[in-house]
Amino acid sequence: MNNKIPQLRKKAMSLPLLPGVYIMKDSKDGIIYIGKAKKLKNRVSQYFGSQNRHAVKVRKMVENVDHFDYIVTDSEFEALVLECSLIKQHMPKYNILLKDDKGYSYIRISGDKYKKIEAVLQKNDDGAQYIGPYTSSYAVKQSVDTANKIFKLYQCNKRFPEDIRKSRPCLNYYISQCCGVCTGKVPQREYSESFDQALRFLKGDTDSVIKELTEKMNEASENLEFENAAKYRDKINAVKGIKDKQKVVYKNVEEQDVFASAEYDDTVCLVVLRFNGGRLYDSEHFFFENGDDSPQSRRADYITSYYSIRNNIPKRVTVDGCLDDKELLEQWLTEKRGKKVTIFIPERGEQLQLVNMCRENAKDKLALYKNKNRKAMAELEELKTLLNLKNTPDYIESYDISHTAGADSVGGMVVFKDGKPYKRAYKRFTVKGFQNDDYGSMNEVLTRRFNEYEKNKDTGEGFGRLPDLILLDGGIGQVNAVADVISRFRLDVPVFGMVKDGKHRTRAIASNGGEIAINSKRSVFTLVSEIQNEVHRFSVEYHRKKHSKSSLSMSLTKIQGIGDKKAKALLKHFKTIGAVKAATKEELLEVSGITEKLADNIIAYYREDD
Q: How many CB atoms are closer than 10 A to CB 224?
């Protein structure tokens, strides 16, 4: 806790209601955050109010603030320009920093008789030929990989012709992505021809490459060399396929950048797709902690941070939603570029498709970064939004009660981790204090569960881990039945019920505020239905097993001298009634508590029964 917060708040309340820039500093006078405000007093004082309203990142920043400075400006636009300039100069720790870590990229051509094409990040004095530099490493790598695969040039580290026939071909040869120079079956003339075509393809001369390949295909066909003709045909189709993919995406816009983001828990992934001449030529992505700013504010921060350290600004910047200070940002980008720049928020058509493509890329990269299944991650995020949860429910516990007319009542607990069943954490409970009372049984089961939490919470595993969400098989009655348990243990765990319709299918989620329909939320509906079916299956399975044993025990208690305790001991030892019936006297005496007289009674009972 920052002891200086009262003092900082007092200073913030004395600031003017004017536009400007505020500069947060730590105890060593280092700048840790820079922001702009339309009204300095209102914006800065928010940081030093209730800390519970702030996201983790903001709380961390506030904890490190020792003092702050501010600069009043004549307008909001001047505040924006000054903020961008100061952020670029000081690169504060807690600002969104979309750094430009890219250098130039080159196409490297090495080898003598059998040349090799590679994408590299620097030019060395090694005797190889270099083409470039290019500003986009993404475009260079994609193009080189495509050329190597289409024209089947080798990509391994072997040296030819020295290494021909010295080892077996690699996987690329067997999946038809390499012609197999190492086999010794590829003439140098044929390989050189493919290399020349690949180089022209990389330089953008696809039309002449297609024309030459077509002539070669026709010539081979006329000479009845159908296998060679097929090879040329495959290359033609591959080049045409790439050419089609590179067609102009949006004819009316020569150049544009597209921004879209995805978030999961406290992490955001921003993807920027860059287009020139309607073609994608670069892609960048960034990860950072999510703050408590609105999506509109974050989008404005993305743009200011991204273009503060980049001079290549396009005519159009397309974003995936509304943003703050749109007109100010357009004015700033226009002045920085020297030509008009428009910020565009698409609602339909091809531009919306581009935004969606950008967002899907962000989701994929975020799932990989978080080591999550993308489908499960989307389901959990949708569930979080629907239930208005503070955190994504990565760890869900679900409970159900099962009995037969009140007899042999049991509770089942299943766990879903990252949207999937986590069976090693499943638990079973024998209800002890309640019979034919589902509400009381549920209360007992959760009380025992959280008693175990108090004993094991230092471990952080099994019962020692708190769930992000509890789902009870039942409606509002079950939710109310356990409310005192959550309160008694002072837990901050959301609890909801899973409501079924007349056909025992999941219909809604129950809360203290009523029912939340989920039929229209396909991802949530699928996940909740799976959880409800699984917890019901698990608890019913345990109940049937227990009820079966109970019935068997009751049949043994008909024998003179055998009570519940000895009946259970016999079943535990012999497993089945048939085994008890077939046991000899000596075998019966091996069971704890069975005397010679009781053994004789058991044998006599089953002999008489026969």
A: 8
| Lookup: tokens for 584 | 């000899």
Point out which residues pair with 9 in neighbouring strands: none
How far, in Å, CA of 402 to CA of 302, rounded?
53
pLDDT tens, position by position, 394-426: 999 999 988 776 567 888 999 999 899 999 999
Dist CA 297 CA 38 (whole Å):
13
- Residue 371, phi-psi category: left (phi > 0), alpha (psi -120 to 50), beta (remainder): left
Number of Cβ atoms within 10 Å of the Cβ of 189: 7
CA atoms within 13 A on the CB side of 311: 2
Whichever domain contains 70, its CATH number is: 3.40.1440.10
Q: How far is CA 164 from CA 158, 159, 181, 185, 196, in A?
A: 9, 8, 7, 9, 21
HSE of 581, CA atoms in CB hemisphere, 13 A? 12
Kindly state whether residues 519 and 477 are assigned to the same domain: yes
Same domain, 504 and 417: yes
Q: Which domain holds residue 163?
A: 109-245
Q: Do both 280 and 229 map to the same domain?
A: no
How many residues would you count in the chain? 610
Whether 528 maps to a domain, the answer reads: yes
Q: Where are the alpha helices (DSSP H) in 388-456?
A: 438-456
- Domains in the chain, number: 5
Q: Tell me how far CA of residue 40 lies from CA of 22, 30, 81, 386, in angstroms.
A: 7, 21, 16, 35
Instruction: Give the model confidence (pLDDT) of 36-91 as tens digits.
Output: 999 999 999 988 877 667 777 888 888 899 999 999 999 999 999 999 889 888 88
Q: Considering the entire predicted model, what is its pTM?
A: 0.63
Q: Measured between alpha carbons, how far is 571 from 556 in angstroms, rounded to an integer?
A: 9
Looking at this protein, which amino acid is placed at residue 428?
R
d(CA 65, CA 31): 9
pLDDT tens by residue, 438-455:
888 899 999 999 999 999
365 and 420 inside one domain? no
Beta bridge partners of 415: 397
